[in-house]
């Protein structure tokens, strides 16, 4: 049994899967409170669902790709068997996680999209650095950049931990930050990262379930 905030079909707006039609399974609850959070409605809103019912709703969309997100999906222990069940059903599954919780028990078939929280998020202290040793080229790391200080901090982590040698690294501007400025910084410093903008917000603004 899991507490589910919403299940919906949309285009993936982030990561290397951006633009792909995807079913999103958003779980309720998150132990973090990032200053830029755009899914605070998932902190408490949701309904209890059996894994079988979740799989039935997902199957109704006949998707190839499924993303399990939050909130923080790993805050619910039953997220792990849900991920495995989705993989068993033949979907290409990704997990969007805050980077604050242990990812070691996530099914290896799942692509783990792991945040590294910058100082601008207000949750830098929650980063679980031990997760870095668990990542494979099948996974991705994401930095949400709030300002130039965040960018310089993220650049330092990228170089110090040689993150580009572990898995793809994503730099994304927080909503309201000039994306062109972040792009200029990346090009100036010749960083080996993927620049991304949240595609779904360009298409549908702040609509939920999109």
Describe this structure as you would to a colleague.
The chain is α/β, with parallel strands linked by helices and 210 residues long. It has one domain: TIM Barrel, CATH 3.20.20.70. The protein has 5 helices and 9 strands; from the N terminus they run E-E-E-H-E-H-E-E-E-H-E-H-E-H. It has a 9-stranded mixed sheet with strand order 3-1-2-4-5-6-7-8-9. The model has no long low-confidence stretch (mean pLDDT 95).
Comma- or semicolon-separated keywords:
single chain, 210 residues, alpha/beta, TIM Barrel, 9 strands, globular
Number of strands: 9
Percent of residues in beta strands: 15-25%
- Low-pLDDT parts are none
H and E string: EEEHEHEEEHEHEH
Write the layout of secondary structure elements.
Blueprint: E1 2-11, E2 21-27, E3 47-49, H1 51-59, E4 65-69, H2 79-88, E5 92-97, E6 111-115, E7 140-145, H3 148-160, E8 169-173, H4 179-189, E9 194-195, H5 199-204
Parallel strand pairs: 2-4, 4-5, 5-6, 6-7, 7-8, 8-9
Antiparallel strand pairs: 1-2, 1-3
